[in-house]
Amino acid sequence: MRLSRSLIPTLKEVPAEAQIASHRLMLRAGLVRQTAAGIYAWLPAGLRVLNNIADIVRTEQDAAGAQEVLMPTIQPATLWQESGRYEDYGREMLRIRDRHERDLLYGPTNEEMITDLYRQSIRSYKELPQIAYHIQWKFRDEVRPRFGVMRGREFLMKDAYSFDMDYAGAVVSYRRMMLAYMRTFQRLGVKAIPMVADTGPIGGELSHEFIILAPTGESQVFYDAAFEEVDYSAANFDIANPDDLARFFETMTTHYAATDEKHDLEAWDKVSPDRRREGRGIEVGHIFYFGTKYSAAMNFAVTGADGQKINPEMGSYGIGVSRMVGALIEASHDEAGIIWPDSVAPFKAGILNLKQGDATTDAVCETLYGNLRAVALYDDRSERAGVKFADADLMGHPWQIVVGPRGAASGQVELKRRATGERVELSVEDALSRIGVTNA
RNA sequence: CGGGACGUAGCACAGCCUGGUAGUGCGCCUGCUUCGGGAGCAGGAGGCCGGAGGUUCGAAUCCUCUCGUCCCGACCA
After folding, report:
1. Residue A312: what are its φ and ψ, rounded to 5°?
2. ipTM passes above 0.85
3. Domain spanning A3-71+110-338: which superfamily?
């Protein structure tokens, strides 16, 4: 994109409402604008990040054997009355009434709806197990939205639901999702630690929160270094193989990990001191098994091999996609701005034309832009160099290609790596190949 | 949901106590100079002071109501 023709309004000063780093940077870098408390419009650069994250989540869900669906944002109250949650959910649920006085709601989650969809069509044990997911906007009318996109009222979430014939099958689905999550977070360029979470009335061990490490995270976390050493790749764990999943699950659950609320000093003492890791974290995902809670309440039963009706065992698996945008920034920024991981950056590279209007400089920039196109943001504004440097650092492109009149005259550009600050002078061709574009 | 603040130009804020022609910095526009880390000078545009009522000769300023936003705490992807 050409910056001069883009709705990417960077800000030099910070709007008063933004307190935490990610919120300030998201506003300053022109990723989002607030529309109402906890409700944001995603501008071009922000939307690209959101889509990049969603794509990675999607790829890993598909690889785990989950199938993508898309359920609506608006749901009929009747479904929730069946499960009893219409009354239980409280004021967090945004309730709506249509012109026919029918009660509707803006979905905060989708257990009821997915259960309804399955009960309509799935009759036999031969059709299970299955996992379905969707990436959809949710609404929870938080009393106090804050931290920008990290705790908004409207948020984009990937939620998956598993259906199995028995507990053993549900465990396999659970582990499969857990592995998919670890791979997802790895690809997103963050360290994530699974932590045992409250299972509430369901009981059991099958509920985990995924905390990604960020210096400004909301809770203190303690964990064994073992989590940082696991090889989550397909070479090590075949996600389709239950034995591999069992081995994976064991490594995830035998090592110590807890947030400050659940920190167990006795157990912590047993972790060898050189392996103790402490940090702060942000919750970005949650998976849990809840048995037949919804299948029983909503009368979803399939015929088993023995002819008996059985309520499938269910689990649900969420990743806060929009929250992840904020969390990634919390995990990766400095004084000057955002430092995007390559995998999610809105633009792989920023092209900085330091002398707009200079024939040679313009020509070199156009060549670069012609090769990079959609993966680059070309700063073609008639701004001074300092402004362009500052904005490029703010926006956090992994690479900056700095084109000045002196270098341009001899075919040289400067390539800067945002994460390290390292700069090198090289030819246009070499710059392109370093970035990973080879058709120069 | 308890507690506390704040709404004045696109952004950050002053003015309000003590009513009397709405200001500053940044940003924006024009010109000249400058030109590799948020330039300088000169000129200019931009406000129903969140909204509604009230008090007053006169309200950004005082009073009442209302809407919105933020912060702390309890709660959540």
Report:
1. -60, 150
2. yes
3. Bira Bifunctional Protein; Domain 2 (3.30.930.10)
